[in-house]
Specification:
It is a single chain. The chain folds into two domains: about 60 residues, Methane Monooxygenase Hydroxylase, Chain G, domain 1, CATH 1.20.58; about 60 residues, no CATH class. The protein has seven helices and no strands. Helix 3 runs parallel beside helix 5 and helix 6 packs across helix 7. The chain is globular and about 50 Å long.
Length: about 150
């Protein structure tokens, strides 16, 4: 569902302020602005088109700022916003793998990366840091799904 124009402008303003704060290294201010952008969406938030990209952005922000517990929370929000299907499963699966990889939980990362690699080859890893693909290849050789 499309968000009304006035709310869309508000979301974009908060997002821009958050990105600017992040760029300056002010992680706390960035998070406050990103949260305000999210909270601008009326409930249920996942019904709005922007919810997918915003939740995804939160996952990346939290992963890249090493707030891994928060990243896991936003993965769940992202799952709700995207719904089910191959495209969302691929996107959410890949991002989940990166969050757990960066947090040092390689076993959990493999649970996401290996099935993606086995099903789609290197395609989900295209354009991303090669360390994820290299890890998926190594993990696929010794991974046992229970």
């Amino acid at each position: 569902m499309k968000l009304p124009d006035d709310l869309t402008k508000e979301v974009y303003a908060y997002g821009a302020a958050g990105r600017e704060a992040w760029k300056k290294g002010d992680i706390a201010d960035a998070e406050v602005n990103f949260t305000k952008a999210w909270e601008t969406l009326p409930e249920p938030r996942e019904q709005y088109d922007l919810a997918q990209s915003m939740a995804r952005g939160f996952v990346v922000f939290c992963r890249d700022t090493k707030q891994f517990d928060k990243a896991v929370h936003w993965l769940a929000e992202m799952r709700r916003a995207y719904g089910a299907g191959t495209g969302p499963d691929l996107t959410i699966g890949f991002l989940s793998g990166t969050v757990y990889f960066e947090s040092g939980n390689l076993e959990k990362s493999a649970e996401f990366f290996v099935p993606l690699y086995n099903q789609f080859g290197s395609r989900p890893f295209s354009g991303e840091d090669r360390k994820y693909l290299e890890f998926a290849k190594r993990a696929a050789k010794g991974y046992k799904k229970e």
